[in-house]
Request: fold
Amino acid sequence: MNGADTAWIMVATALVLFMTLPGLALFYGGLVRARNVLSVFMHCYAIACLMSVLWFAVGYSIAFGDGNAYWGGLGKMFLDGVTVDSLTGTLPEILFFAFQMTFAIITPALIVGAYVERIHFGFVMVFSGLWMLLCYAPVVHWIWGGGFLADGGIFGDVGVKDFAGGIVVHETAGIAALVLAVMLGARKVSTKPPHSPPFVMLGAAMLWVGWYGFNGGSQLAADGGAAMAITVTHISAATASLTWALWERIKYGKASLVGIVTGTIAGLASITPASGFVGPVEAMIIGAIAGVLCQEAVNFIRNKVKIDDTLDVFAVHGVGGIFGTIMIAVFGEGTWVAQLGALAIVGVFTFVVSVVLVKITALITPFRVSEEMESNGLDLEEHGERAYEFHS
Reply:
């Protein structure tokens, strides 16, 4: 065990949890109508709790167990055999478990943005739990757990390169979000502006800070590689924020706060898979393109194909993660066959599993709320609370 590595990953674990609670909750909560903000907070908070328990029970075993190239097995259920002396590299295995748990929390939480304002809470919980175990955890095993997409797998000695989750986190969450948005259908009223842009900015800022742990922690060591990952993460985020705002200004005459911070998230998502393989100049290029690319993806999905992916999960996270994964090959840090092949395999798998799980979950618990519930808002209808009581 290395004490410095252990101390850094403890900090990184806290930073990644901070991304969901409160970062993502505030970012998404500010973007919805005032009558739905508590439901978004509830989704993020409850998902964090449920994924923690499921990751402990079986998710970690599926992802990092000693099974085969496709499935980690159930040998590490409830951390069986993991003690304070167990090591993963230079880290206590229990810390590695906790660090990866925070990734298992935020990935299904990202999907929340696709279905806010019109979905039953029970469906969110059942679907998120099944999806994490049957979609996310197997993909983790394939890429990070020594599975068939990693080095020595079907792509030969050099497998897919995904440093911190362009495929594992962002592609899977983005595709699942698109599936849910299509199968759920559009909101009855989709033209209301975000109720609290300040919440959006504060949430994005917390995500930016937390992303230091997300990408820097994925080095699993306190060394120059972690420092470089943090640096390129910051450069990409800053550049994408500026290009998003500039492109908005060119197209619409004004640069918005919600726009510039969405550009931040686009830059962060895009650099995530490449953050362990590129330098600051490459990061600036990735961020510069991402700010325009993801904005155009938002416009295409929202206005051209008219899919109500409410908070643009696929356009920002999905497109960003896929773009960053491809840029690894562009800069010669991975093979084209492995990068594109893994994107295709995981994309098809995620699509199929997500569709099946939506149909199965809908048999267990109601899917979409009634038109009256949607009109009244999910805060009162689903949770019996209001975010703002102006007459008290």
